[in-house]
Amino acid sequence: MIRKNKKTIKTGVLSLFLLFYSSQGLSQSPPVSSEPSNIITKSLLLDIEHIGSGLIAVGDRGHVVRSNDCGQSWKQIIVPTRATLNAVFFVNKKTGWIAGHDSVILKTTDSGKTWKEVYKDIKAEQPLFDVLFVTENKGFAIGAYGSFLKTENGGKTWEASTIYGEDDFHLYRISRSADGELLVTGEAGAIYLSTNNGDSWDKIKSPYEGTFFGNQFLAENKILIYGMRGHVYESDDLGQNWKQRTIPVNTSLESSITTEQGITFLVGASGAVLKSPDNAKTFKKIQQSNKSHRVAITQCGEKILTVGEKGILQVNE
Question: Are 139 and 151 spatial neighbours (Cβ–Cβ below 8 Å)?
Answer without folding.
Answer: yes
